[in-house]
């Protein structure tokens, strides 16, 4: 694989990563705001939309020769966000385990306090994010590259 396929050319890599950064900031704002639908069942569609934006950004990276690293980085950042930001927001809000539910939606299915969940997310998050980046990011990048070749 040539080095340009891995690193890319032009500014489109910045655009792909920037789209994921903007989506992450918007999702963080929704987590931080006291909006009830986001706090209950709205967390899964929010997380799916964030990963969806990242997969589309990886496809964009493949379509516009941004490099495979941009595609992987997009999916990695969005996936890692799910494991780190919600527990960090819960810790900042002062959420505790005994409050009768979480004030901030978090990915853990077991009852952990925010600090323990943040530590678990920092341990498990990069592993899961790397697996998603290598599978979803590579597939989306390849699909984007295939669309580029078909349109030429």
Automatic annotation (TrEMBL):
Keyword set, alphabetical order: Membrane, Transmembrane, Transmembrane helix
Residue ranges of the TM segments: 12-32, 44-62, 69-89, 127-147
Name of the protein this chain belongs to: Uncharacterized protein
Organism: Halorubrum californiense DSM 19288
């Amino acid at each position: 694989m040539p080095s340009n396929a891995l690193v890319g050319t032009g500014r489109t890599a910045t655009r792909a990563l920037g789209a994921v950064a903007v989506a992450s900031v918007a999702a963080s704002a929704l987590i931080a705001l006291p909006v009830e639908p986001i706090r209950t069942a709205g967390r899964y569609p929010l997380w799916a939309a964030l990963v969806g934006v990242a997969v589309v950004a990886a496809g964009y990276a493949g379509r516009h020769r941004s490099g495979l690293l941009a595609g992987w980085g997009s999916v990695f950042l969005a996936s890692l966000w799910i494991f780190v930001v919600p527990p960090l927001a819960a810790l900042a809000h002062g959420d505790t385990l005994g409050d009768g539910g979480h004030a901030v939606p978090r990915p853990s299915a077991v009852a952990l306090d925010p600090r323990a969940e943040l530590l678990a997310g920092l341990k498990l998050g990069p592993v899961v994010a790397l697996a998603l980046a290598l599978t979803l990011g590579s597939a989306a990048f390849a699909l984007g590259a295939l669309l580029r070749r078909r349109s030429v």
